[in-house]
Records
---
Amino acid sequence: MSHPPAAVPTGPSPTGPARTGPSPTGPARGGPTPTGPSPTGPARTDPNPAGPTPTGPTPTGPTPTGPSPTGPTTILVTGGCGFIASHLVRALVRRGDRVVNLDALTYAGDPARLADVEGAPNYVFVRADIADAEAVERALATHRPQVVVNAAAESHVDRSILDPGPFLRTNVVGTEVLLRAAQRHGVARFVQVSTDEVYGDLEDDEPATEASPLRPSSPYAASKAAADLLCLAYHRTYGLPVVVVRSTNNYGPYQFPEKLIPLVILNALVGRDVPVYGDGLQRRDWLYVEDNCAALLLVLDRGTPGTVYNVGTGEERTNREVVAAVCDLVAHRTGRDPAAVGALIRSVPDRPGHDRRYALRTDRVRFELGWAPRVAFLEGLARTVDWYLDNAAWLTRASGGQFAEYYDAVYRRRWGRDA
């Protein structure tokens, strides 16, 4: 656990054959998709700086819902070089909207995620911080978007425990700056991208509906809850046509390796201990990023102003089940011994305030907008593992710098408390 991040092997595994097979967005490659220990979980609870362009195939993205019947719409997406928003930007560009990507390019923002649309005539990049009121005003005055999608956020719970300050600045102050600018410029729709974590720990409760109380546990979740309430207040007070989307845990290609699934892939590849907080029985709903973007497109096009939409699969898995399934997939894809890779899993001290369970009711987005997830968990997991194996150079680059400092603070020095 105390070793610094290492380079991801790019060649065949020394213990097994090289990987073969088709694109990660198609059928699974070399070897069967493992079933793993209880991979499907229990029954459903609800009807960085720019670098080299990744060499693997581009993610396919969600199925576009089609351009506006009145012609292309100008959509400003904040944080568009981040994980979820980059997939959304790609989908919007492909369906013909004019997209303005406003991103500060913090440690987790990487223009390489959008290299395939960089030269598109309907794509514009603006480097700016959403908490910079003058920069935001210039962007809206120059590009005059009809829609703003606020996906810019500090989003990692662990980092919010180490230092809450950036979360308050970006997630709360930045959101209010955007809301004021959107109000001044008469934006026709403001989509706030949020999280299921605002509902807090539901270990002994029913899944949260959009009307459930907000009980955030971490500084990150509290900052997102504050931002959501600001958005809804702007709708009620000023009539700004706001919609809020709260999704469950996303996963897929291009996710920064501080998050659970890419972290497990990284450590399994380099033979480093795979950390699992506490007993590993925390339960989460895992949503493939393209399915979440399909929901965002529907909400953007047809969501009711002043409304919150929960988005999730309704299936829950423990963190330990997810980690075991990822390790099994990495072993099969690289020709390694599954038992040896699985033996890397280690329990580590739990993080402060760790919620035991998140769960959502998603009736509204399903019945009002007709959304449903298309990518089953094991299929999405196979696509994800294959993408990281095909883009080992991107993973190696992402796992240096600030990631190395974060990893040391959390896993070696116990949240920065040990010297």
---
Amino acid sequence: MNDILLLVQKCAHTFSFYDLETKAALKHLVLPNFPHEFTVDVNERFAYVGIFGIETAWSRGHEGDHRIAEIDLVERTHTRMLDLWPYYRPHGMATDRDGRLYAMSEAHDMLLVFDEPTRQIVPNMAVPSGGVKTHLVTLTRDASRAYGVHLLSNTVTQFHPRDATVAPRAVMPGPRPEGNALSGDERTLFVANRGDDTLVEIDTNTMTCGRRVKTRSDPNRIYRTSAPDGRDLLLLTNSGERSISVFDARQLEEILPVAVNSYVFWTPEESRGMLPHRDAAPPGSRRAPGLRRPPVSRRRLALTGRGGWGKARGQFNPERFRGARRGG
């Protein structure tokens, strides 16, 4: 059986299942307008999709939505809606190994927590993120710390995802931080700044910035994977030039740039990440200098339509939906 790609197409307002080998669409589930990020629970039975409600983080004139769609990955059905009201625009999504679901309200900079998402409709806890326009959230493996990335305050905060009495700790890594990933030992948080095309490392113990290097144009996501020798590698998606950069995390140097002439879904084994996608290069356009085609197998590469976010997963079996693991 072939691998399955799970795909949110925010401009088509769908959650879809694709066969990675044949690239055939297996099923499209129509959702309310502009679903954005999604996460998969620890048992890999349900996906939870934030209904952002507006096209981009900078769209004006509408407050967005306040719901999360629950998707049964085995039955391939949209089962029900969870409700965050009065908190709007759920974007960053996460789950932990105890089965909890976390959704970040970008409109209100509030992390909403569901201890038992399959049994709840509304969250049982809300924790302030400590920043302004909180776009993404990353959890440590034991979910004892959360890192919020804030587009408008230009900060990254460390806070407890279930204890609002713990004061957030903030640092400013640069203009318009967004993409982020923890190192394998969780001692470093890597952050990509879209405002000045830089990659910055943050010491998670002291919450201070360390090394800073230039990236390619408009790096908007980071995913961690491992080299054959166990070293941490960082995959940066550069939406400004339709490329993926591979960085050695220890040296903080780019070791492999990859040209992307269409929409790509890259799924390293350790990552449940979702990558942004751009239109195919128009006739006559050229790749950025020094870029190469992706040296990946068809099991790790899929092409699809506009406005999508996706992740490749393994095949279903009666008890488990195998696939890539979270990489920070």
---
Amino acid sequence: MNPAKKVVLPKGSSTLLSANQSNSKSSDSSDSTAAIVSDSSRGRGRFSLTAKTLASLCRPAPEYTPPAVTSSNSTPTTTSRLPTLNPHHFLLLFCTISTYSTPVNRTTHNRFEFSLTFTVLPFPHTQTAPTDMYRPHILAVVNPRSGLRRGQHNLNQLHSILQQAGCQLTVITTSGPGHAIQIAADSELQHFHCIAVIGGDGTIHEVVNGLMLRHAPAHTPIAIVPAGTGNALALQYNLQSVPDAAHRILRGTPTPLDVLQVTHQQQTTCCINIAGWGAATDINITAEKIRWLGRSRYSLAALRQILQPPVRSAIVTLDQQTLHGQFLFAVACNTRFAGHRMLLAPDARCDDGLLDVLLLRPTSRWNLLKVFQGIADGSHRKLPGIEYHQARSVTIQTSDPDPLNLDGEISGTAPFTATVLPAALRLLV
């Protein structure tokens, strides 16, 4: 008896195992079959598989010939071959079982035979066509003058990553203040996967205002590519680099984004970060005058505010609650951070339908120094003079037209009302 050989079934092979091949003309046809024979009287069975049967496993299946297809004019047409196949296959089995009784020496033996046909078939390979349907199309709005003027550098880095992922990128570079508003308001957005804003909080502020000016709600989500000085909204979602932003564009999920609607002097401005009054505005005005210092300008501006803290009188209304008196500042926050990593409102969320309002009453310079130091880690809320509230709207009435800080931009004057618009836009995070 020949020793058993290990046989590996190749892809695309086919064979037939049968216990009865009556149509075979070969005298040794039994050597090319496999059979299981069961004897009910003895409770025994055996399985025979010969070398020829094993060898037959290695025979490739005959080439597939597709059936003819008859068109309406009765002209037969055929397809010459199968489409391109990939290496993923499945096993197709056909099994036929026959049972019969055989009387032997006054004893009936119940026997059965079966034939087993199996074929390894490939799954059709479907190639993804390089069309717009399979290549996300992204609108990139770039502010080359944002922050430390890294807009163009970050765009090149983003383009390289997205191009490798098979994405299309349409780039519009802003030419000056207000241009991003026009782009977001007038662009046809229905075919874009997202709007990638490459800039700082000021650029995002303009894009948000442009989207809110559209006649129909904008369903295209915003994607943040941080390139500014503060990047408060990016920090809210722990977006700190271009690779982080590219990952969110490719794998992120659209999430609701609340918008602050600020009404002042019969005008309406939409904010995504803060609406500030008092010292929050004074610090920003001073910081803009020394913009050439970069991120450290906010710390120097805050130090000047500590040395010369102006006090203002106002009436603050939080939903149905009214507060009277003197204040150093009042800030309505949609994000936790303001400026550069100033953790102004530690509990703020962009999807809870609430404003986090921070009020600072008059206090000593020493305590004011602790307040500005505590803003770095959010510990300032426990200090004297600080009041922390949550509301859906806030109104500040003043006797003087003090300027406002709207998302880091000096725009408008008090009195003003800030109201949250829940889930007004979508953000890709």
